[in-house]
Design a protein that fits this description.
This is Cystatin domain-containing protein. By secondary structure, this protein is of the alpha+beta class. It has helices spanning about 1-30, 45-60, and strands at about 35-40, 70-85, 90-100, 110-120, 125-130. It has two domains: about 1-35; about 35-130, Nuclear Transport Factor 2, Chain: A (Roll). Helices cover about 35% and strands about 35% of the residues. The chain has a five-stranded antiparallel β-sheet.
Length: about 140
């Protein structure tokens, strides 16, 4: 009787340990990739539009040689996502225009979608990454002036 009691206790401890490990793994995995969408409304739209405009300007200045002399021009921030763990990061899905030819008479402009990840640094926001979203389709028609 005592032997089966030890076996039962051992199985119970093993079950609890395996559950704790699975919970810790799933919590860590969820925290690494957990982005929550921030709804754009009247109070924060201007802030996120300015943040997107600054991200495009910083990227254009830093990559002037790679863009062939053409700088990107900010159009609009379409979506904002926020990640709080392990540190605060803001992902902006934005539209920007790039001139497709170098002559002044050319009217060719290319509208592209980009994802800019912005992080707070020294009371300002700086661009951590800026990537082209090649297959992105906006939810509504985006007009840039």
């Amino acid at each position: 009787m005592e032997y089966s009691g030890h076996l039962l206790l051992l199985l119970l401890l093993l079950l609890l340990f395996s559950f704790a490990v699975r919970t810790a793994d799933s919590t860590a995995a969820a925290a690494d990739d957990h982005w929550e969408e921030v709804p754009l409304f009247a109070l924060n739209t201007k802030q996120y539009q300015n943040m997107g405009r600054n991200a495009v300007q910083l990227y254009s200045v830093a990559n002037a040689g790679k863009l062939g002399g053409n700088e990107l021009r900010f159009c609009r921030t379409l979506q904002v996502e926020l990640q709080r763990y392990p540190s605060t990061r803001i992902a902006l899905t934005l539209m920007a225009v790039e001139k497709t030819c170098s002559t002044s008479a050319c009217a060719g402009f290319l509208l592209n979608a980009f994802r800019a990840v912005v992080v707070p640094l020294n009371h300002r926001y700086t661009v951590q990454s800026f990537i082209l979203l090649e297959d992105y389709t906006p939810r509504y028609d985006v007009q840039c002036v």
